[in-house]
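Researcher: Sequence of Glutamate carboxypeptidase follows. Predict its structure.
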Amino acid sequence: MRLTSLAAVLMAIASVPVAAQLSSAETAMTKTIDAEQDRTIRFLETMVNQNSGTLNLQGVEAVGKMVRAELEPLGFDVKWIPLPETGRAGHIFATHKGSGRGKKMVLIAHLDTVFEPDSPFQTFKREGDRAIGPGVGDDKGGIAIIVAALRAMHQAGTLKDADIVVALTGDEERPGSPIDKARADLIAAGKWADVALEFEGLATDGGKDFATIARRSSTSWTLKTTGRTGHSSGVFGEGLGFGAIYEMARILDAFREELREPNLTYNVGVIGGGTPAAIDEQGLKIAASGKTNIVAETAIARGDLRSLTDEQDARARAKMQAIVAKHLPGTGAELTFAEDGYPPMAPTDGNRALLATLNRVNRDMGLPEMAEWDPAKRGAADISFVAKDTDGLAGMGPAGEKSHAPGESVDLPSIARQAKRAAILMSRLAQEPAR
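Model: Prediction complete. Tokens:
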């Protein structure tokens, strides 16, 4: 071998993470996950081929039954929690009682998808190392990882001492109302747990895996402006003022100019104005009419607000209300926030300590360490409801593309990789003293 070639080989070896010795149980878990990868993919295919759009209540419950069949043989007490009062199917909560000495863990994923029965995108298809299908990544791939990891722990004997609640909501994509009822069981599980692991999609970029220690909130708002209507020849004058649409434009442009700060966004999703204008009960459609020579009487807009912390959220809301209060002559405005939003999962020292534990797992597996993912690049998720009560890591699910869109896909090798990380992480956490 030439010297230059030898040097290149040595440099390549030096760049690979050095793997510490995994325990015999941890090695056994990685082998089990590899050996059962085809079984895991078949389970994923079965789930994907059962439509479970949020409003398909029977379909959501059917996927819950599939998961029950996987968890009960592992020693989990599985309960279906129906929630007809919220307009949704319900949730699966499965409890495994361990020694009571290690860290208590809640594993979070969801049974539902954005694809209702009328969607043309309905079936699972495999193309080599990629699978395509509705919810294949979001979040049935996450459920498959949970089951694969727990099966490996069970076979290796590390599940025996682990105190775990598997919380699979049936309405993550379109939460039921009231939200406090829809998430009551999850919030209770968060208060019980020392650690929350959420199995939505893995963040990746440039071939690298990233860890999610923070997610932003998601809250909707409605803005209604009013004006004095009349002949447009009097617009801007003392008698009529500026009208509802100019007042709406003033407010929204001020939001754009004055609310800029990192990790804060405020989208306008729908808008309409005229004489008259009204919004439907779902807050999705605005009916408006008017003439060019009539000053607009009403304008309506709806959007969302996303923030990283409670403090940022409160600050943004106060600024928005202050902007709204500065009315143009002859106009009025009212801004209201929905009560069923998702809270933020703020970046905390506890979350970063949990990431450090995961990175020790990565080193021992011979994988690169995972850096923190930019929270502005992630949407809201159910882990946010437990974030104030327990340390957490999100994004423990598979890597994939086109989430929420026809052609949604998942990288199949990432399922095994994530299941190994999760199995080893959970096995180690089960041996750490509870708080």
